Write a sequence for this structure.
């Protein structure tokens, strides 16, 4: 069975080369491959990332992501612990991959 990502150009870590190739179905497929079922909480972060990327043409580092999520959704969501519960492999890195964005600057 063919995967959505198989037909798209990615870098060696699986990040899309063209943000415009992203779809919500792709996000669900990538998360599913990691054993994650995307919930409304995940989509809040992914939608925020999409909006951020549209405005700044860069993926936010974890510090910026945490601060901005807190401003938008409240302190209980604007912290590393909450974001790591949603994206255990690294909130900025894993969430940006699901959102079809390049790997954030400063992520190892």
């Amino acid at each position: 069975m063919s995967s959505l990502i198989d037909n798209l150009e990615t870098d060696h870590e699986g990040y899309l080369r063209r943000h415009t190739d992203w779809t919500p179905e792709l996000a669900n497929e990538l998360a599913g491959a990691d054993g994650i079922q995307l919930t409304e909480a995940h989509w809040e972060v992914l939608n925020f990332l999409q909006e951020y990327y549209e405005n700044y043409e860069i993926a936010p580092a974890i510090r910026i992501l945490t601060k901005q999520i807190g401003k938008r959704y409240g302190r209980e969501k604007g912290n590393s612990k909450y974001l790591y519960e949603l994206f255990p492999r690294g909130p900025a890195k894993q969430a940006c991959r699901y959102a079809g964005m390049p790997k954030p600057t400063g992520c190892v």
User: Anything to note?
Assistant: The CA atoms of residues 2 and 29 lie 11 Å apart. DSSP finds five helices and no strands in the chain.
